[in-house]
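Section 5.1 Outputs to date
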Amino acid sequence: MRARILGEFPCADVLVLHLDLSSLASVRAFANRFLALGLPLHHLINNAGKFSHGQLALSEDGVEMTFATNYLGHFLLTKLLLGRMAETAAATGVQGRIVNISSSVHGWFSGDWADYLSQVTRRKIAYDATQAYAVSKLANVVHTKELAVRLRQMGADVTVNCVHPGIVRTRLNRDREGIVTDLVFVLLSKLLKTIPQAAATTCYAAAHPRLAGVSGRYFADCNEAQPSPAAVSRREAARLWQASEAMISGSAEHGGGIPVLQPDRNI
């Protein structure tokens, strides 16, 4: 990727740092290295994604791997870099922007995400890769909503929004690459977006002047869209935040790293 960028923009200054978003230790090491560089930070795009077709896998922190990679690592990364983003915005007068990459698949899950993760992690129920992916993408949207509120409360000139990029062939299905996967993508080719097309909404949320001051929203095809009912509950957002803080601190008591919290019965 670095070579491709330099090939198109020879004068670009590209710095690559190692980061494994499924590992909380790796996220902390990355953040420490970046912050030590003393660089400003205007944009943070949380774009890592994993869809596992295999059996249940846990991260080194004991969290279901899809949730750890797609959501929890981003939660910690954002938390660790938020101070630098607020400082940069205050010093430069340029509003900072955080973009979380979600998916319309977040609407495919409507149950109690904490109970699901606890049950599947302890192998009390069968592992369903699609449900696990949907839970992680739901968490991306819910996190966006809660973070927007907290950014306003702290007075930071930083916004956060989330986007559905569309259906696009990337290495999201890396666990099942091969002839069958290639055939499926050929059959679906007319419905798939190219990578630039899929990136358009992310770039829109990250840079378009029209979205100055806009925060806590969900976008698809460069337009605001309505997330699922489960994604807009403030009580559920606070519950996810509390659970995430417990998971990254290692203080979760039950359920393979998932703290037992009462769900919002109003959703």
